[in-house]
Specification:
By secondary structure, this protein is of the alpha/beta class. 33% of the residues lie in helices and 23% in strands. It has a seven-stranded mixed sheet, sandwiched between helices. A six-stranded mixed sheet has the order 14-13-12-15-16-17, covered by helices on one side. Helix 4 runs parallel beside helix 5. Bound molecules: ligand JHZ and S-adenosyl-L-homocysteine.
């Protein structure tokens, strides 16, 4: 049974950045009801109303992993470790985006899966074998016909985006060798609850995994987590190292046991935890709205930094629109000169002039706070201020 605990209202598709013609002349934006629930059996957290994959991941998909140095570095570090420790013969990446991870590996050893044509083009151009398809059993069968030695499958911030987990794991088991390893990486439910980062919920994030729920899901495919790594990326993520249960080469590490204990101590297996979380979300909205109203009353100029999918959830939920935030700054070519979904806040290219115009900057990409504050030392020194809602809504005056 799935029990609902959070209602974030009607929301637009989070990565659907608009051109003016998309919302003037009465053109309708697609909205869906963003509600979140708890599966009493598997303890899996999921959104309740899903949008078809083809509507979200089309040939115009704007997100590029390479826009953050933090992510590039994290992928580089992981690649080194995987090469050293597992010495893979053939690597399959599901949701390879612009190749930020895979470009650390030799072209001869790699298979990319990326359904968005405009993004898949990037790895194709770099010379990596790329399938422009959604991950499912048909694709898995096609790949298996030519590649029988896939001993490492990697997928970051993608499996949580696919509603049919049965198809995901059956397809993985179909292509992965008996001694193969599956490494997945997604935002951690524990950190999401701890930080009240309710903006981890939007149409693409169908699931927010915990070790508890991942274990429950993969067991029936004969898989188990044997190691785990905590990451700072995307507001706190978990990297799960998964093997077939019958593969005795790796023991279940102490880190897995510790994570399980921590999650149980935090009561991630109890519905009541999420009811409390939902109350904190409502409070967060109230306080954030007050901060924006107070700053605006003083006649200050506010802009946003990082036109993220997460910011779309926050701003639409809190009803903060273009009369409050003058514009967003972002480095992503496919977002620039477009408008934020739902709130219709304009997105400008990142430059110092556009930044220095502001008195206050809303941190849309709060998950890259360290990287951004490092870059914007001067803005802070000159008295520039940031507004964030994580872990609690507040104004930040200096780093
Ligand atoms: P970022 C997307 O979420 C969507 P978003 C998706 N569902 C997901 O899971 C994660 O990514 C992986 C910009 N930026 O990574 C670049 C600057 O402008 O938090 C990006 O547009 N300057 C697939 O959108 C955005 O911020 C900078 O200095 O919530 C960051 O987006 C930096 C560091 C970033 O993901
Ligand atoms: N792995 C990268 C990209 C994450 S963005 C990173 O961590 O930064 C999620 C990517 O998954 C997008 O590029 C999207 O097109 C892709 N994706 C979404 N649904 C998918 C599916 N069913 N099969 C394979 N890839 C998918």
């Amino acid at each position: 049974m799935i029990k609902k605990f959070l209602d974030l209202g009607m929301q637009p598709l989070a990565n659907n950045y608009l051109k003016k013609k998309d919302f003037v002349r009465g053109n309708k934006e697609l909205f869906y009801h963003l509600e979140v629930g708890f599966n009493t059996k598997s303890k899996l957290i999921s959104i309740l109303n899903t949008v078809p994959s083809k509507k979200m991941f089309d040939d115009d998909y704007p997100y590029r992993s390479s826009m953050s140095k933090t992510m590039l570095l994290s992928f580089k570090k992981l690649s080194k470790y995987l090469k050293f420790f597992y010495k893979p013969n053939c690597i399959l990446e599901i949701g390879s985006n612009d190749g930020s991870l895979i470009k650390n590996f030799s072209k001869k050893k790699v298979i990319c899966v990326e359904p968005c044509k405009n993004v898949a083009k990037v790895t194709k151009r770099l010379g990596y074998k790329t399938f422009t398809d959604f991950w499912d059993i048909n694709l898995a069968r096609k790949i298996k016909r030519t590649s029988k030695n896939i001993d490492l499958i990697y997928s970051a911030n993608t499996l949580s985006h696919i509603s049919n987990l049965d198809s995901v794991f059956k397809s993985i088991c179909h292509v992965m060798t008996d001694k193969g390893i599956l490494v997945i990486e997604d935002p951690s439910l524990l950190e999401c609850v701890r930080n009240v980062s309710y903006d981890q919920f939007y149409n693409e994030h169908i699931y927010i995994f915990s070790l508890i729920s991942i274990n429950a899901v993969i067991k029936k495919y004969g898989l188990e987590v044997f190691d785990i790594e905590k990451l700072d990326t995307h507001g706190g993520s978990l990297r799960y190292f998964i093997k077939r249960i019958q593969n005795q080469k790796f023991q279940i590490s102490q880190r897995v046991k510790n994570q399980l204990q921590e999650e149980l101590k935090f009561k991630l297996n109890k519905f009541s935890t999420f009811v409390k979380f939902s109350k904190k979300v409502k409070k967060s909205k109230k306080v954030l709205r007050k901060i924006f109203l107070d700053v605006k009353k003083k006649g200050k100029k506010i802009i946003g930094y990082g036109a993220t999918a997460k910011a779309s959830t926050v701003l639409n939920y809190c009803n903060i629109k273009d009369e409050t935030i003058d514009y967003f700054l972002d480095t992503t070519p496919d977002k620039i000169k477009k408008f934020m979904p739902g709130t219709h806040i304009f997105i400008k290219p990142y430059d110092k002039k556009n930044l220095n115009y502001a008195d206050y900057v809303f941190l849309g990409a709060w998950n890259f706070k360290k990287e951004i504050f490092n870059k914007e030392k001067n803005f802070l020194k000159k008295g520039g201020k940031f507004i964030t809602h994580i872990p609690k809504p507040r104004i930040i005056k200096k780093a």
